[in-house]
From TrEMBL:
Species in which this protein is naturally found: Methanocaldococcus vulcanius (strain ATCC 700851 / DSM 12094 / M7)
Protein name in UniProt: Cysteine-rich small domain protein
UniProt-listed InterPro entries: Zf-like (IPR007212)
A Pfam cross-reference name: zf-like
Residue ranges constituting the Cysteine-rich small domain according to the UniProt record: 16-85
Amino acid sequence: MIELAKSHLKKVLELCGANRNCEYYPCHFDGQVCLWCFCPFYPCEDEELGEYIKRRDGTKIWSCVKCHWVHREEVATEILKEILSLTKNNSIDEGLQLLDDRELMLKIKDKIKAKYPNR
């Protein structure tokens, strides 16, 4: 394998697999899929997946520290499929603008969660 291909494959494996090289790994559970290190549904406000917690200053923030759902392989893959199907005919910037629609993103979450419930 040529070096450019190896370098690219390393990035893909770090992104799509269990990135044991990450200083925060595992942030949820051992063997987690790290593709959605930053959840595209945040804050989902789904109480099966997370909860509001108080910060030191008394304000509330959504915490998904107990969420394992988005890091399961089948769920992470399904999220990617949905996003790619919506954005395949757009430039990256157009795709990001489309996915900036919170209602759309929560519909994607609900569709996938119906197929792969939180367990």
